[in-house]
Write a structure and sequence with these properties.
heterodimer; A: alpha+beta; Alpha-Beta Plaits; 4-stranded antiparallel sheet; 30% helix; flat; B: 4-stranded antiparallel sheet; 6 strands
Chain lengths: 121, 118
C-alpha cells in the first residue's frame, strides 16, 4: 500500500538557515532517504521550490485564470513529499515521524487512492 | 524543467456521498480525465500521477521534544485540500499552465504549479 507523506513547514525558517544549517538539514533528509530505501519503503520523493515560485491555475466559465503564488497563503507550506510503500498506516506513521520536517513542521500521511477499475496512469 | 501540478479541491461535498454516487460522479468525469492523460502523455511520456484518498484518511505526524504526536488531518485548515499530484518534465511554465487548465479539477478547484528541485 502506498502512502504519501506530505511535508509542511515554515519557509521563513528555512530561509533563515545559515549555509551550515541548510547542509545539516539536507544531510538529515539524505539519512532518512537512505534508511527508508534500505528498509524497502521508499517509492519516491520530491522537494518543491519555494511557494514564491508557484503559479496557480483555475478554470471558471471556460476561462483560464492564472495567478502568481500558491493557491492559498499559509504559514506552513507544502515543501515536498515522500512516497512510502508500507504494509499499514501505522508503519507509514512510524516512517513519517522519522522525516526531519516532523520535528519542526508537520508531516501529513495520506493513503494513495487505488481504484482497481481504473487504469493507472 | 520538472513541475509538480498540485491539485487542490474541496472534497467536503463529495467525501460523504455513498460509494455508488461517488463512482457515478467519477465515471461522469472520466472522459475528461482520459483526454487529460492523453495530453499529459504526449507532453511527457514519463509523467506520473497519484491521487490521494479523502480527507478523513489523513493523519498529521509531529515530533516535539522527541515525542510523537499523531492527530487526525488534514494539516492545512483550508477548504481546499491537496487531492492529487502529477509530476511532469515540460519545456516551460506556459506548457505547465496549458496542461494544468486541462485538469478537470481546475474547473472547481485550483491547480498549483511548483517547480521540482533536482
Amino acid at each position: 500500500m502506498q502512502y504519501m507523506a506530505l511535508i509542511y513547514g515554515d519557509e521563513e525558517v528555512w530561509a533563515s538557515f545559515s549555509e551550515e544549517d541548510t547542509a545539516a538539514a539536507y544531510e538529515q533528509y539524505r539519512a532518512f532517504g537512505r534508511d527508508a530505501d534500505a528498509a524497502g519503503v521508499l517509492a519516491g520523493g520530491n522537494e518543491l521550490a519555494h511557494t514564491r515560485n508557484a503559479t496557480t491555475v483555475r478554470v471558471r466559465d471556460d476561462e483560464t485564470l492564472v495567478t502568481d503564488g500558491p493557491y492559498a497563503e499559509v504559514k506552513e507550506a507544502l515543501g515536498g513529499f515522500y512516497l512510502l510503500e508500507c504494509a499499514s498506516l501505522d508503519e507509514a506513521i512510524e516512517w513519517a515521524a522519522r522525516i526531519p520536517g516532523a520535528e519542526h513542521g508537520a508531516v501529513e500521511v495520506r493513503p494513495v487512492y487505488v481504484d482497481p477499475e481504473e487504469a493507472q496512469l | 524543467m520538472n513541475y509538480a501540478l498540485l491539485i487542490y479541491g474541496d472534497d467536503s461535498a463529495w467525501v460523504d456521498l455513498p460509494d455508488e454516487e461517488k463512482m457515478a460522479l467519477r465515471a461522469d468525469e472520466m472522459p475528461q480525465w482520459n483526454s487529460l492523460f492523453e495530453e499529459l502523455g504526449k507532453a511527457d511520456p514519463n509523467v506520473t500521477g497519484k491521487e490521494l484518498d479523502g480527507r478523513y484518511t489523513a493523519r498529521v505526524v509531529q515530533v516535539r521534544d522527541g515525542e510523537r504526536i499523531v492527530t487526525d488531518g488534514p494539516f492545512a485548515e483550508t477548504k481546499e485540500i491537496l487531492g492529487g499530484v502529477f509530476l511532469t518534465d515540460l519545456p516551460d511554465l506556459d506548457e505547465a499552465i496549458r496542461l494544468a487548465a486541462l485538469i478537470p479539477a481546475a474547473k472547481h478547484g485550483s491547480i498549483e504549479i511548483r517547480p521540482v528541485l533536482q
